[in-house]
Amino acid sequence: MKRGLTMIELVLVIAIVAIVATALLEVFISGFALNENSRNMTIAANIAREKIEELINIKQSNWDQIVTKRYCPTDCIDGTLAGYGLNGSCRVDVINKDTNLKFIRVVVCWRLKNGRIVGTDNGEGGGTALNGVREGSEQGVTWENTPVLNSPVVVETALVNG
């Protein structure tokens, strides 16, 4: 009696190994995508936090300088997004509730390595992608009766003068 694998057994073993290897490869690819997403979310949250801190520092010196701004890769005022390695836009919306109260909303949108844009600053309907402005048919939300961008990374706060 000969010992060994027949051709059918060998083909079955190779097929099973291929299926298991494909499943493991999918797990690794998903892990890399989740890692990129986590990295980008952390960077975007830090950018939003930094913008809030900048406004708090401005508040201490000149209350009237706190105004709506956009920070984009092409016309970035202070290079913040490029300095973090994130291809995206950051918009700071300011609403004056009265002379001593301002509502602040910071939105960060960005482009993934695969080209998909996270957030509503995506250029839909003739708008320009990642320019920090809600335009065309870009979806967003209404905040304090003002149309604004939306993203998974949004920080809202209120500043009081004095």
What features would you highlight for this structure?
five-stranded antiparallel β-sheet, 2 helices, two-stranded antiparallel ribbon, alpha+beta, elongated, 162 residues, 7 strands, single chain
Report what the structure shows.
The protein is of the alpha+beta class and 162 residues long. The protein has one domain. Helix content is 37%, strand content 25%. It is built from two helices and seven strands; from the N terminus they run αβαββββββ. It has helices spanning 7-61, 80-84, and strands at 69-71, 88-98, 101-111, 117-118, 141-143, 146-148, 153-160.
Main beta-sheet annotation? 5 strands, antiparallel
Silhouette: elongated
Which band does the percent of strand residues land in? 25-35%
| SS-based class | alpha+beta
How are the SSEs placed, and which strands pair?
Elements: H1 7-61, E1 69-71, H2 80-84, E2 88-98, E3 101-111, E4 117-118, E5 141-143, E6 146-148, E7 153-160
Antiparallel strand pairs: 1-2, 2-3, 3-4, 3-7, 5-6
Q: Short description, anyone?
A:
The protein is α+β, with helices and mostly antiparallel strands and 162 residues long. It is 37% helix and 25% strand.
